[in-house]
Design brief:
With 335 residues, the protein is an alpha/beta fold. The chain folds into 2 domains: 182 residues, Rossmann fold; 105 residues. The strands form 3 sheets. Strands 3-2-1-4-5-6-10 form a 7-stranded parallel beta sheet, sandwiched between helices. A 3-stranded mixed beta sheet has the order 7-9-11. Helix 3 links the parallel strand 4 and strand 5. Helix 1 packs across helix 6 and helix 7 packs across helix 11. The longest helix is centred in the middle third of the chain and has 20 residues. It is globular. It starts with a strand and ends in a 10-residue tail after the last helix.
């Protein structure tokens, strides 16, 4: 089976590409050939083209067809229009990578299922992903465009430390400086290692029952944000100084950070994975966060070039903490 990944080198797509190769799929990666973070997948065909310049894709692909085409790089409906034009009649299955953040926010009830409405009033990123889904489903219903929609939630791998600030937050912890957790630190969140996600994702390839359907694929390990940061601290061998800060206060200092919180991470979010498990029984998550984040820390320690300190983020954190500390004249404002 011939599979074309648009992308293939990112946090999620790399693990999916690697697993597809291991399972015997004939994998082609279409991208600009610029990523060097992860080891190259030498077994995959490399197609150099830029999906943002459709003519380069047409020239690179010629008349070729693929059993499965996957776009990891579509973020708004204009990108989807290009996909439909490029791959109409060229594939038996087109998989769009959406986002679980497109679901109703905050969710009206838990756990979230694939039938939960797509309604995020806060985060434009999520609304754009929902608009992409709507356009693809119209194409499916009107012309039989063979779409499958996949909604990852917060997915990470060795090259991605899944906390805001990434290594800057790690550096603060290593220096004994306070770090922020959201609200009172008890909202429930789900983190999924990309190798686990890949099991469910690759299992959808060529499944006729997946056409015209949407699936989210996440771990069933639920944790509070205090637990998440605590496990990161354990991997670092430090005792964290956690400060609980309301998300709407954070948004006053950093609009982008605030939108990602109020439109996603600040809300308890539990997902029911029954649908993907029913179609792909081999989907079983085996990487607990404590083990996964330890691998991420070790990867960063081996790659000094990734240990980048974001001075602007540090300044924002300090400004938030200074503002928040005014409510605690005694100074006991961390846990």
């Amino acid at each position: 089976m011939k599979v074309l990944f648009i992308g293939g080198t990112g946090t999620i797509s790399y693990s999916c590409s690697k697993l597809a190769i291991e399972k015997g799929f004939e994998v082609s990666l279409l991208n600009r050939g610029m990523s060097t973070l992860r080891e190259p997948l030498l077994e995959a065909e490399q197609i150099i083209a830029d999906i943002r310049q459709p003519e380069t894709v047409r020239q690179a692909l010629g008349e070729r067809r693929f059993d499965v085409v996957i776009d990891f790089l579509a973020f708004h409906p204009g990108h989807i229009e290009i996909d439909i034009e490029l791959f109409r009649g060229r594939t038996e299955q087109f998989i769009f990578i959406s986002s679980a953040s497109a679901y109703q926010t905050p969710p009206g009830k838990l756990p979230v299922t694939e039938d939960t409405p797509l309604d995020n009033p806060v985060w434009q990123y999520s609304r754009d992903k929902a608009a992409c889904e709507h356009r693809l489903m119209r194409a499916y219903k009107s012309e039989g465009f063979p779409v499958t929609i996949v909604r990852p939630s917060h997915t990470y791998d060795e090259g991605y430390i899944p906390v805001t600030g990434r290594w800057t937050t790690v550096d603060r912890m290593l220096r004994g400086q306070p770090v922020i957790t959201y609200g009172d630190g008890t909202s429930i969140w789900t983190l999924t290692h990309s190798t686990d996600f890949a099991k469910g994702f690759v299992g959808l390839f060529g499944k006729e029952a997946a056409i015209g359907q949407a699936f989210h694929i996440t771990s069933d390990e639920w944790q509070t944000w205090d637990q998440i940061v605590g496990k990161l601290a354990d991997a670092l061998g430090v005792e964290p100084r956690l400060v609980h800060v309301p998300s709407d206060l954070i948004a006053q200092f950093d609009q982008e950070w605030g939108e990602g919180l109020l439109g996603d991470k600040a809300n308890s979010f539990i997902l029911d994975n029954s649908k993907i498990k029913a179609l792909v029984p081999e989907f079983v998550c085996t990487v607990p966060f404590a083990g996964g984040i330890a691998r991420s820390v070790e990867f960063y320690r081996r790659h000094v070039e990734l240990q980048v300190i974001n001075a602007q983020f540090n300044n924002t954190v300090e400004a938030i903490l200074n503002s928040y500390a005014k409510a605690w004249p005694s100074g006991a404002w961390w846990v």
